[in-house]
Structure formats: structure tokens, C-alpha cells
Amino acid sequence: MKKKIESFECTCTYKTKTWNTKVSDIWCCENYVEFTVYCQGTKLKSYLGMGSNGNWICFPEIDKGCGLAELHDYYWNLEKLCKVLENIIDATSIASVLKEMHVNLNLWWDY
């Protein structure tokens, strides 16, 4: 069963640069969350879930993904995302979105 969640924006910061990132098309499914992130000219279709070894995120349109810590662990997730995404802006945006999801969405697997 899919449940649609309201779109939201979050503020992202890297060094002295600050920008807004929009998250839309958010669907909570039985064992994953599907959403689209718009940040600084980039559109990233994203899938977030939890497996037996913890949280994960994948970006099918660019054939990349990685394991994650808990959603609120911004710095650990940023480090992992920097290894798979093209640039620090995209990685910072996704890490910020994950932290915002932890704070404002009641995801079923958050500890």
C-alpha cells in the first residue's frame, strides 16, 4: 500500500553556500520510501529503505546507491553519499533531506 506524503523544502549549507532543496513525489510504501530531490539544477529520483543490514538509498537513474546510518546521522550519511554522487552539493542536499525526513516524517524503521 502506497501513502502519499506532502512535499517539503529544506535549507542546505556547505561552507559559506546556502540553498533550498525541494523534495516532492514522496510515496511511503510497505518497505521503502520513493521521492524526488531537486537541488541546484539536479533532479535525483531516490529510493530509501531498510534491509537486514540497515538503511540504504539508491538512485536508479544514475545507477548508484549506498548504505546509510540512521537518518539523523548527517555527517556519516554525507560521507557515504560523497563517495557515490557526482558532487558535494548533491551529497549535502540528500544528507540534509534524510535528516529532515527523520525529524518531520514518521518513517517506520527509524530507531
Helix/strand-derived class? alpha+beta
What level of helicity do the residues show? 25-40%
Biggest sheet layout:
7 strands, antiparallel
Give the N-to-C terminal Cα separation.
Answer: 22 Å
Number of helices: 2
Number of strands: 7
Q: Which residues sit in consecutive blocks of at least 5 with pLDDT less than 50?
A: none
Order of helices and strands: EEEEEEEHH
Strand content: over 45%
Computed CA radius of gyration, to the nearest angstrom = 13 Å
As for the number of domains, it is: 1
3D shape = globular
Mean pLDDT across residues? 90
Pfam family, one: DUF6618
InterPro entries: DUF6618
What does this structure look like?
It is a single chain. The protein is α+β, with helices and mostly antiparallel strands. It has one domain. Helix content is 25%, strand content 46%. It contains two helices and seven strands. Strands 1, 2, 3, 4, 5, 6 and 7 form a seven-stranded antiparallel sheet that branches. A hairpin with a 3-residue loop joins strand 3 and strand 4. Helix 1 runs antiparallel to helix 2. The protein is globular. Pfam families: DUF6618 (PF20323). InterPro entries: DUF6618.
